[in-house]
Design a protein that fits this description.
CATH superfamily of the domain at 25-97 in chain B: RRM (RNA recognition motif) domain
Radius of gyration of chain A: 29 Å
Number of strands of chain B: 6
Number of helices of chain B: 2
Order of helices and strands of chain B: EEHEEEEH
Strand content of chain B: 15-25%
Shape of chain A: extended
Helix content of chain B: 25-40%
Largest sheet of chain B: 4 strands, antiparallel
Strand content of chain A: under 5%
CATH architecture of the domain at 25-97 in chain B: 2-Layer Sandwich
Number of helices of chain A: 12
Strand order of the largest sheet of chain A: 1-2
Strand order of the largest sheet of chain B: 1-2-6-3
Structural class of chain A: mainly alpha
Radius of gyration of chain B: 28 Å
Shape of chain B: elongated
Distance between the termini of chain A: 65 Å
CATH class of the domain at 25-97 in chain B: Alpha Beta
Number of domains of chain A: 3
Largest interface: A-B, 56 and 41 residues
Oligomer: heterodimer
C-alpha cells in the first residue's frame, strides 16, 4: 500500500497535500457526497445550545459538543426501528471522481463507519436492536471499492512511469517444511548477507523422514479434497441430466468446465430409471 | 496512523504520510463515572496514544489535551455442557481528556424508544382486549365471521 502516497504525489505535490490534510474541512465537502448514502451529520442546534459557554480560547464548547456528536447518528433516527439509506458506491461511479474527491469521500466514509460502530455498540449495551445494520456493510463495500480504484490508478501510474506495478513485491518461497507460499517482501535495515542472526536462525534444509511422511499425507489430503470436489460436481451434472434429459448441455459445460460431459453422455449413468434400457 | 504497510524510508519529509487511514474509533459509554471533560473511546487495537490524538484533532477537529489507553481483556466464558472456554476479543480503550472548559456527557438515546415501546404495548393490549370481546360475543355461535353482526 505504499503506493497510495505516490499516487497523490502525481496530482499534487506533497506540500499541497499536507496542507489539504490540515485544512480539510469535512463538513463543507460532505454535502457533495451525501447524495447516495446518508452521510450528512446534521447537528441539532438545541444540543449545541445545551453545552455550557466557554471563554478565552479560539475554540468553543459548542464546537466540541457538535464535533463529538459526529460520533452519533442524527437524533431523529435514535428511536427509529429502520433507517432508510441508499446503496453503496459502485466502482464505476468512483472511477470518474478525481483524486481529491476520493480523498474527501474516504474521510466521509470513515466518519460514517465510526458513527455506525458507535451506535451499534451502544445498542448492544442497552439491549436494543441496531436499526438497519446493513449500513455498515454498505460503508464497507464503498471503502473497499474506493481502495480498489485508488490502487488501479496507482498501478496505471507506476506502469506508465516505471514499467512496474508499484505493488508490494511478492515471491514464491519455501517454508521450513518445504511448502511453497507467496512471501510478501519486507524492507530490512540490513542486507541478507550481513544479517548474521537471521542466517543462523534460518534452516535451509527441510528433509528428514518425518517431514517427508508429513508432506506425503499433506499432499494426499489436498489431493483428496480436489478429487472429492471433482466427483461432487460430476455427480451433480449426472443427477441434473438424469432428471432433465433435455437440459442445455452448453450451459452445463459452461457451468461445470471440469466435468467431462461427453463421457457422461455415453455412459448409462445419466439414464433415468423411468427410461427403458434399450 | 493506519494498519497498512509502509516503506522504511521514502524520499522527502514527513516520513509517515497517511492519506487513507483505516483505523476506527467508537465513542462508548464509560463503565465508571468520569470527570466531565474525559471521553471514553474504543479504538483499533493498533492505535497508539499519538494516533488517537491525531485522529481526533485532524479528522474530527476536537482539541485533545491528553490520551491514556489500556487494553481491556475480553470476557471468558466456560460452556455449561462441554466445558470448553470461549473468549470475546480484547478491546483497546482510550480515555481522552478534553480541555477543562469543555464537557461531554454521553447522550441518552433510547428514552424516546421507551415511549414508542409503551405505545406499542398499549396498542397490543387494546387489540387483545378487542379480540377477547369478539370471542365473548361469539361464545354461543362459534365459527361465525366478524362481519356477521355488529
Amino acid at each position: 500500500m505504499a503506493g497510495f502516497t505516490k499516487l497523490v504525489n502525481v496530482s499534487q505535490s506533497i506540500k499541497v497535500c499536507c496542507a489539504a490534510l490540515g485544512n480539510l474541512s469535512i463538513q463543507s465537502t460532505t454535502r457533495n457526497f451525501g447524495s447516495l448514502l446518508r452521510f450528512q451529520q446534521h447537528v441539532q442546534p438545541q444540543l449545541c445550545a445545551s453545552a455550557s459557554a466557554i471563554t478565552g480560547r479560539n475554540f468553543s464548547t459548542n464546537q466540541t459538543k457538535c464535533d463529538l456528536m459526529q460520533f452519533f447518528d442524527d437524533p431523529k433516527n435514535w428511536p427509529e426501528n429502520e433507517v432508510k439509506v441508499g446503496r453503496a458506491w459502485k466502482l464505476d461511479e468512483l472511477r470518474i471522481k478525481s483524486n481529491k474527491e476520493l480523498h474527501q469521500l474516504w474521510y466521509v466514509l470513515l466518519k460514517e463507519r465510526n458513527m455506525l460502530l458507535t451506535m451499534e455498540h451502544e445498542c448492544n449495551e442497552k439491549m436494543e436492536l441496531f436499526p438497519s445494520p446493513e449500513r455498515l456493510d454498505k460503508v464497507k463495500i464503498s471503502m473497499e471499492n474506493l481502495e480498489t480504484v485508488v490502487r488501479e490508478r496507482n498501478k496505471a501510474y507506476h506502469l506508465l512511469e516505471t514499467g512496474e506495478t508499484g505493488e508490494r513485491p511478492q515471491r514464491l518461497v519455501a517454508n521450513n517444511l518445504g511448502i511453497r507460499y507467496m512471501y510478501k517482501s519486507v524492507e530490512h535495515v540490513l542486507p541478507p548477507f550481513m544479517n548474521v542472526r537471521w542466517i543462523k536462525t534460518r534452516s535451509i534444509g527441510y528433509g528428514g523422514r518425518a517431514v517427508r511422511k508429513f508432506l506425503l499425507k499433506y499432499r494426499e489430503k489436498l489431493y483428496n479434497e480436489k478429487r472429492k470436489a471433482k466427483n461432487r460436481s460430476r455427480n451433480e451434472v449426472m443427477m441434473l441430466l438424469r432428471r432433465n434429459p433435455n437440459m442445455d448441455v452448453d450451459f452445463l459445460r459452461r457451468k461445470f468446465p471440469n466435468v467431462n460431459i461427453d463421457k457422461l453422455m455415453e455412459s448409462d449413468k445419466i439414464r433415468g430409471h423411468y427410461v427403458p434400457n434399450v | 496512523m493506519s494498519t497498512r504497510w509502509y516503506p522504511l524510508y521514502q524520499r522527502g519529509n514527513p516520513q509517515l504520510r497517511v492519506f487513507l487511514p483505516n483505523f476506527w474509533m467508537k465513542l462508548i459509554r464509560p463503565s465508571e463515572p468520569q470527570p466531565k471533560n474525559i471521553v471514553t473511546f474504543s479504538v483499533s487495537m493498533e492505535m497508539t496514544k499519538h494516533d488517537v490524538k491525531n485522529y481526533l484533532e485532524k479528522i474530527y477537529k476536537v482539541p485533545v489535551m491528553d490520551v491514556r489507553t489500556r487494553i481491556a481483556l475480553g470476557a471468558t466464558k466456560r460452556d455449561v455442557t462441554y466445558g470448553y472456554v470461549t473468549k470475546h476479543d480484547d478491546m483497546k480503550i482510550a480515555y481522552v481528556t478534553l480541555p477543562k472548559e469543555m464537557e461531554f456527557t454521553f447522550p441518552e438515546m433510547f428514552t424516546k424508544k421507551d415511549d414508542a415501546k409503551k405505545a406499542d404495548e398499549k396498542a397490543m393490549e387494546d387489540t387483545k382486549q378487542g379480540f377477547k370481546q369478539f370471542l365473548e360475543r361469539n361464545k354461543k355461535r362459534p365459527g361465525t365471521p366478524g362481519w356477521y353482526s355488529i
